[in-house]
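REQUEST FORM: STRUCTURE PREDICTION
Request ID: SP-0412
Submitted by: Lab K.M.
Chain count: 1
Length (residues): 90
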Amino acid sequence: MLLLANLTMFACGNAKEKASAMVTTDFEFTSGNKKLSGIIDQPAKGDARALILFVHGSGLTDIRRENRYIDLRSRFTELGIALRGVGQAW
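STATUS: Completed
RESULT:
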């Protein structure tokens, strides 16, 4: 809980600056008869040391266009943690 509280305090700078510190890649695969998709955020410099699966909800959202959770996503990648979020898999 403390880690999450510290991460949510990372709110300085704008979304464009935060997004430039990471590389975001779309992906998709099929499981059974369902197509699953999402994004992977990785540090722009260096390799990721860990991966967090971030399931943030469902419905009509576009995490990239709307810069959803950009504070958390950019803080994780600054710490060298890759972040996999869900995408258009509904």
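NOTES: The first helix runs from residue 2 to 8.
Reviewed by: T.R.
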